[in-house]
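ok, trying the design again with the full structure, not the truncated one.
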């Protein structure tokens, strides 16, 4: 087994010691941090998410904080969502693009005040990006990384667990809305969100000294509901059609190619990054789209470290960007980033390390 060599280039989250105690057996690197991927029983972790409540260390979802008189303007420059009516306490899924309209991140934006925003980011350096924009545009705003680390409670029983700790007010939170609170003196921000379609909350710890204590408070509250550890790496995300930017995208992927068109407002200000290129793509139409794949075979065969070519009528038409074994569908399933020539229902061939594998294109989500 290969171990991660400790170095100051990598960081652990405030929940790391708790995840070790829970029996974490594998992890990946995300935003230069260690993110748990399994605790040794992926099937049990999957069903816990589907049927009960799962507790995740997602402290790797770092916050890019914008603070200052121009914070709102910078937030709008960075994202394709129209923020003009965004209220304090409201969050939004807010994809970011570069000048060529390539998706570079898909954070959740949290508006705390007119002069204070967080981007809860996926895996790329948005601090560097935002600071470059500030210098380019001459904005009066400070970009920083606050001491904030999310923990997720996901699954159909997550609301009951969070309400037992925080109070019934959490039941009234709309999706992506949030509220600051305390748990036994520990400062947190509670948001209805999470990288699954099973429902849940993210608890943003705002003092990293209390990671293990916060973890254990929710763990104890979840015992009557069968809580256990998990991670945002199960087949559920693929079954549910959730996008992983950087995994399901490449250096040329624009939002229209990966089902993000409803999160693009073409009438945002002209200085929004990537909007000119996106308006052109909207006029001309994208060249690729994202579909689901159901592969033949009855043995789990997950994707490795690279995308795999997809052949349509003998010619390369796209790539398979992820592949997992679905316990509910009893099949290997994945995503295709593929030419518009290919449509749901088409038979394709995937060039896998084990050889050519037949598959069928389908619409997303699977379930």
């Amino acid at each position: 087994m290969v171990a991660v060599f400790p170095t100051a280039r990598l960081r652990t989250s405030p929940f790391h010691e708790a995840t070790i105690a829970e029996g974490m057996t594998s992890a990946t690197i995300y935003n230069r941090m260690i993110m748990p991927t399994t605790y040794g029983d992926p099937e049990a972790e999957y069903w816990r998410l589907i049927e009960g409540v799962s507790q995740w260390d997602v402290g790797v979802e770092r916050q890019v904080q914008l603070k200052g008189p121009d914070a709102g303007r910078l937030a709008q420059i960075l994202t394709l969502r129209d923020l003009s009516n965004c209220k304090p306490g409201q969050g939004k899924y807010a994809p970011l693009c570069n000048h060529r309209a390539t998706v570079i991140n898909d954070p959740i934006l949290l508006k705390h005040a007119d002069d204070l925003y967080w981007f809860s980011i996926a895996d790329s350096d948005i601090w560097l990006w935002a600071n470059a924009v500030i210098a380019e545009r001459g904005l009066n705003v400070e970009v920083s990384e606050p001491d904030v680390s999310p923990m997720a409670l996901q699954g159909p029983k997550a609301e009951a667990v969070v309400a037992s700790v925080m109070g019934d007010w959490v039941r009234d939170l709309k999706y992506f809305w949030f509220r600051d609170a305390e748990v036994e003196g520990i400062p947190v921000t509670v948001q209805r969100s999470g990288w699954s379609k099973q429902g849940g909350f993210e608890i943003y710890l705002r003092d990293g000294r209390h990671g293990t204590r916060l973890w254990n408070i929710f763990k104890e509250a979840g015992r009557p509901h069968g809580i256990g550890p998990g991670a945002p790496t199960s087949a559920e995300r693929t079954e549910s059609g959730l996008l992983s930017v950087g995994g399901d995208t490449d250096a040329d992927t624009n939002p229209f190619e990966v089902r993000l068109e409803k999160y693009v407002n073409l009438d945002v200000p002209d200085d929004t990054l990537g909007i000119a290129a996106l308006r052109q793509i909207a006029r001309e139409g994208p060249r690729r789209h994202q579909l689901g794949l159901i592969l033949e075979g009855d043995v789990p065969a997950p994707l490795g470290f690279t995308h795999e070519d997809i052949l349509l009528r003998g010619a390369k038409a796209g790539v398979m960007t992820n592949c997992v074994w679905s316990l509910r569908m009893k099949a290997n399933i994945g995503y295709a980033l593929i030419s518009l020539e290919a449509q749901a229902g088409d038979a394709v061939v995937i060039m896998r390390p084990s050889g050519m594998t037949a598959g069928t294109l389908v619409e997303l989500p699977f379930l």
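Keeping the full-length input from now on. The helical segments are 16-22, 42-51, 71-78, 126-137, 158-166, 211-222, 236-239, 275-284.
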